[in-house]
Design a protein that fits this description.
The chain is built from ten helices and 19 strands. A hairpin with a 5-residue loop joins strand 1 and strand 2. By secondary structure, it is α+β, with helices and mostly antiparallel strands. 45% of the residues are buried. The strands form four sheets. It has a five-stranded mixed β-sheet. Strands 3, 4, 7, 8 and 9 form a five-stranded antiparallel β-sheet that branches. A five-stranded mixed β-sheet has the order 12-19-18-14-15, with no helix packed on it.
Length: 503
């Protein structure tokens, strides 16, 4: 049979199966070497870095925490479409078809090697994908040619069996990579007892006012916003923290040495700068760690240094003002969250938490290096993309209940939510229904100026559509502005307003 007699759809199927088998094998190899080097993930990470800031903000606001799966899925779809084209080309021009498939894997390899923390082994998964993918495409085409006894216009039996076997193998290899990655759980670690700890947190109002966010955010519900398409897998035995740059005494600590240092616990609400007004990228927890001030005093910060450029194990850089890490706010190099080691997705084994600053300037996950420098000498990932250099958390409030456009029965009900103004604290929260007067809400328990406050207001709801707005005033006397602003470049502003229907 001539190559040109192979139906287009069969050629496309061969290309798809070849890519799937190669990608599955690459994913398995990456799980053993470096999960971030998996071809689709490596390309996706490169796309994230190259994406203009407005597009990133649109993706986060539109897709929320689904932005990463959507990106990975989009990269996979484009890859498969190009692989299908390679299969079609291979029918009549084998060299061109194999060349396109090889070029795809070469691009993935280059993307993997371009990652900040990549080593030479990062290219291995893409090499495996290229070799196996090209070999599979040639083999599948050969099986069909060898199946000379197939009736005209009917599927080639050997080709069908070969294609089915390739599909099963691709699924098995990809699934094996997922299993290996999933089984790498956080190891059992005995966290040290803190030298100082806040009093046990009081019960929140969520128990009596349904719908208000829990006073302590459950670990599995804590928001996650970062650029990592795969969660770094760090072995504490291999981890170390390097503090260098403009210091008198550079310091390197192992994980065990870090655990031996005096630690404190602190209740802190964290907020992402990408949080829209009324958004969910905010959460509260009790963090255990070493005060950054302790570490910086130990190394001796030289005069003139105004920035700590911190680096994560996967190469992300974040810049934090030195002042914020040395004052009495007690920024922490964190090892624990709510009495347990950090979850992997929140920075295990070590992260930075800086009260009062948005995460992109004070909350490096998977922390491995802190370099004392100046803003004039070095810049970080987000500042290179035109985000603000110094970004204190803005005073904000949110309505949790009732939900927007939810029908609610007429009569007595409750409006409730949370408000935050880290480093300043919340003095009052007020609610307005339609064009009425601002009414002062009752605040929930107080866990300090770095922790959010729950609030509620009893409301006698009357039938019809109503607009509800909330505003907070912090302890400096500042009341939220009504001026709307998007998160870029230093945080969203405006009042959270919802519409409800009372029946």
């Amino acid at each position: 049979m001539e190559r040109s007699q192979t139906p287009v759809r069969v050629g496309a199927l061969h290309g798809l199966l070849a890519a799937a088998l190669g990608t599955g094998a690459a994913h398995l190899v990456a799980a053993l070497v470096d999960p971030a080097a998996s071809p689709v993930l490596a390309v996706g990470s490169t796309v994230i870095d190259a994406t203009p800031t407005p597009v990133k903000e649109w993706a986060v606001s539109t897709f929320g925490t689904a932005d990463k799966p959507i990106l990975v899925g989009s990269v996979a779809v484009v890859t498969l479409l190009l692989a299908a084209l390679a299969g079609v080309l291979h029918r009549t021009r084998p060299v061109l078809g194999l060349g396109l498939l090889a070029a795809l894997t070469a691009l993935a390899g280059a993307a993997a090697l371009s990652r900040p923390a990549a080593g030479p082994a990062a290219v291995l998964p893409s090499v495996v994908a290229g070799v196996l993918g090209c070999a599979t495409l040639a083999w599948l085409a050969g099986r069909r040619e060898a199946d000379t006894w197939a009736a005209p216009g009917q599927p080639a039996r050997r080709g069908v069996l070969a294609a089915g076997g390739a599909g099963v193998a691709a699924a098995a290899l990809g699934g094996g990579g997922q299993v290996i990655t999933a089984r790498r759980r956080v190891p059992e670690i005995a966290l040290p007892e803190p030298t100082t700890s806040p009093r046990p947190l009081p019960a929140g109002i969520e128990g009596t006012h349904e719908g208000v966010s829990p006073f302590v955010t459950p670990r599995d519900a804590f928001y996650r916003v970062d650029t990592a398409l795969t969660v770094p897998r760090v072995d504490p035995k291999d981890w170390q923290l390097v503090i260098d740059g403009d210091v008198e005494r550079p310091l390197t600590l192992s994980f065990d040495e870090l655990l031996e240092l005096p630690m404190i616990e602190k209740d802190i609400t964290m907020t992402c700068v990408s949080n829209e007004v009324g958004g969910g990228y905010v959460g509260s927890a009790r963090w255990l760690g070493v005060p950054t001030r302790t570490l910086l005093e130990r190394v001796g910060v030289r005069p003139g240094a105004d920035q700590v450029l911190s680096t994560s194990v996967e190469g992300m850089t974040i810049s934090t003002p030195v002042q914020a890490l040395m004052d009495d706010r007690n920024a922490l190099v964190v090892v624990g969250m709510d009495g347990a080691p950090l979850p992997r997705e929140h920075g295990f084994p070590v992260r930075l938490v800086t009260p009062g600053l948005y995460g992109f300037v004070g909350a490096t996950k998977w922390l491995t290096k802190m370099t004392l420098t100046t803003y004039a000498a070095q810049s970080a990932y987000w500042t290179d993309r035109d985000w603000a250099t110094d970004a204190p958390v803005l005073t904000q409030s949110r309505i949790d209940t009732p939900k927007p456009l939810d029908p609610i029965p007429a009569g007595s009900t409750v409006i409730g939510g949370v408000a935050w103004a880290q480093q300043r604290g919340i003095e009052r929260v007020e609610v307005r229904v339609d064009d009425g007067e601002w009414q002062r809400a009752t605040l929930g328990p107080d866990a300090g100026i770095d922790y959010w406050r729950q609030w509620y207001l009893p409301w006698k709801a009357t039938p019809g559509r109503h607009d509800i707005a909330v505003r907070a005033t912090d302890e400096t006397g500042y009341t939220q502005t009504t001026e709307r602003a998007t998160p870029f470049p230093k945080g969203a502003t405006g009042l959270h307003t919802i519409a409800v229907v009372v029946t």
